[in-house]
Amino acid sequence: MPANRSFALRRGLAVAAALPLLALAACGYGSESKDSSSDQKVAAGSEKIDGLDSVRIGYFGNLTHATALVGNQKGFFQKELGATKAQYATFNAGPSEIEALNAGSIDIGWIGPSPSINGYTKSQGKSLKIIGGSASGGVKLVVDPDKITSLKDVKGKRIATPQLGNTQDVAFLNWIADQGWKVDAQSGKGDVTVVRSDNKVTPDAFKAGSIDGAWVPEPTASKLVAEGGKVLLDEATLWPDKKFVITNIIVSQKFLKEHPKAVEAVLKASVETNKWINANPEEAKAAANKQLERDSGKALPAEVLDPAWKSIQITDDPLASTLDTEAEHAVKAGLLEKPDLAGIYDLTILNKVLKAAGESPVDAAGLGTS
């Protein structure tokens, strides 16, 4: 990709101020953060890693952040960190987590591809690195079956996405273009009316009939199904091998440079957590929901939890090529200029951990640290 190109909206400063490009994570619901420190005990005789009293880990209270949820609930992170305390903070949106990372309030975070790109490019490649993968999939087009019975019926309807320029919005605009339909990306008006609606209010809007469907992540998609919606399209079917990044792991570049052993411990715990999740899906689902209840005060009901969990793939692979493609889709939609993502990944430590675990290395798709 060309060097020294900023990640910016084509439209003027007013639009840029009103809508930070790709600002929200895939499942963001707001901007607050909440302390979610674990009660896990430090094992007797354990030693601190890199002399650190604690490592501060951020994540969202969503199933697409299952690695962090389960790793917290089952104590995987604390086990690997020894006498260094694993401290947690939950976030509702990408910008607040990126701000916390930049301010040094957290060291490592689970977050979606859009805020990762935004944080990296806004800082001219100085704030963060993507150091691992976590989840793929979990995004669906859910519609009112009384109004829409086939993909061609989407034309002329009102379909919600979480926010202008966010990951799902870009994916839907790209899908619309692939159908040969026209929509003005900024206004959402055209052959399809794209309604930007916060995920937490979309189910009510769907129930009220003010929208005909929504292109949304889990668990919102399953909440719509519980309200009588039907899954018309799973976004995974549009990607090679049905895989695309929905959650990855980022770290402060300062923390990565100063405390590589702590980063390695967290990544080792992540790999162990993912292995456990994939080997024990029912127990992992329950653990994730238990942590969700602890973090938010409310667990997901089975009719939402079960289908949502099934649609998410847990993986160590950051699926780097799909992050690059997601950025290209945003460029194609006319929402942004082509970003310079060279160096956004540093998978050195992850591949070291994977090799030690007897697993295959993962690839940065040409976007790794040289």
How would you describe the overall organization of this protein?
The protein is α/β, with parallel strands linked by helices. The model is unreliable at about 1-30 (pLDDT under 50). It has helices at about 15-20, 65-75, 75-80, 95-105, 115-120, 165-180, 200-210, 220-225, 255-260, 260-280, 280-295, 300-310, 320-330, 350-355; strands at about 35, 55-60, 85-90, 110, 130-135, 140-145, 160, 195, 215, 230-235, 245-250, 310-315. Helix 2 (about 65-75) crosses helix 11 (about 280-295), helix 10 packs across helix 11 (about 280-295) and helix 10 (about 260-280) packs across helix 14 (about 350-355). It contains 14 helices and 12 strands. Helix 6 links the parallel strand 7 (about 160) and strand 8. The strands form 2 sheets. The protein has a 7-stranded mixed β-sheet with strand order 1-3-2-4-11-5-12, sandwiched between helices. A 5-stranded mixed β-sheet has the order 8-7-9-6-10, with helices on both faces. It is about 40% helix and about 20% strand. The radius of gyration is 20 Å and the shape is globular.
